[in-house]
C-alpha cells in the first residue's frame, strides 16, 4: 500500500485521467455541436449517428480494456487510453472529412470506458479498503471537472468562431497528463507489476451469474437505462437551447458550467447519502433528480429555471455510475462485482447508442428537442421504481435471490 502522500497524488491523477477522457473525449463535442455544424455543414442525423457510435465504441472499449488489464496491466492501459484520447483531440480540428471526424470522435469517446475500467484494479492496490468507496465516488464524479473546463473554453473561443482552439487545448492537456501519469505510476511501482495470472478476464461468468440471480437482472436493466436516459439529455442540450430556444453562447456555457460545478460536489453529497442510508436509497435519489431535470427542461423555461433543471440532472448523473458498482459489490462481493459491472458497462454503451438514436428520431419526427427530455424523465421514473425493488444494502443479506420486502 502506498504512503499517504503518494496515495493522495495517485488518487488525484486517477481523477484527472477520468476527467480528461470522459470530460474532454466524450463531453466536449455536445457543447460545441452548433459551432462545428456551421463550419463543417453536417446535419443532426450525423450527430445522432456519431454520438450513438461513440457509445457503441465504448462497449468495445470496455471489453478490450478488461482484456488489456489482464495482459499488460491496469496502469499501462490507463496511460495508453489517455494518450490515445489526446492524439484524437489534437486531430479533430484538422479533420475536414466527416467520416474521419466521426472516427476520431469515436476513438476519443471510447477512451472514457478504457480509463475507468482499470481504475477499479488500481484503487484496490493503492487505496485502503475503508476508503475505496469514497474514492470511487470521487472518480465517478471526475468528468464534471472536464465539463467545467469545456464550458470555459467554449465560451472563450466558440462564440468567436475559433472552436478549433478548444480541441487543441484539451488535446495538449491530455498528452501532458499522460506523460505525468506514466512517470507517477512508474515511481509508484504500478507499471512494472505483472498482470493477473488469470489472463481470461471473462472466465467463469455463467457460474458466477447463476449464484446471484434474479436480482442481477434488475442491475442489468439499470445499467442499460443508465445509458438510454442521460446521454441524449447531454447530447442535445446545446442544440435545444441555442437553436430552438435562442439562448446565447454565454448562457449555454453557464448551464454547462453548472452541470460541471454541481457534479464536482455531487459525489460528496450522494456519497454521504449512501453512507447513511445505503447505495440503493442514494440511487433512488439520483433517479428522482433525473425526473426533475427532465421535466423542467421539457418546459419552455427561463434561463434561471434551466439552471435548476441541469443542476438537478447533474446531481444524479455523476454519482449513479459509482453507486451501482458499490451496491453490486455489497451484494455479490468484489470478484463477482467485476463480472457484473463488466456486463453493465456493455449494456450502458448499448443503451447510450439506443438513446442517442431515439433522440435524433424524436427530433426528426416532432421537429423539436423537447420530447427527448420528457422521455428521459419517464425512463428515470421507471429506473427509480426498479431500484426500489432491490433489497436494501443497509440490512443483512438473506441470500442471493432476495428482493426488496
TrEMBL record:
GO cellular component, one term: plasma membrane
One Pfam assignment: MFS_1
Alphabetized UniProt keyword annotations: Cell membrane, Membrane, Transmembrane, Transmembrane helix
Transmembrane annotation, as ranges: 9-33, 45-67, 74-92, 98-122, 134-159, 165-185, 215-235, 247-270, 282-299, 305-324, 336-358, 370-391
InterPro entries assigned: MFS, MFS_dom, MFS_Efflux_Transporters, MFS_trans_sf
Topology of this chain in the membrane: Multi-pass membrane protein
Gene3D superfamilies according to UniProt: MFS general substrate transporter like domains
GO molecular function: transmembrane transporter activity
Major facilitator superfamily (MFS) profile domain residues: 11-395
Main localisation: membrane
Compartments where located: Cell membrane
Domain of life: Bacteria
Name by which UniProt lists this protein: Major facilitator transporter
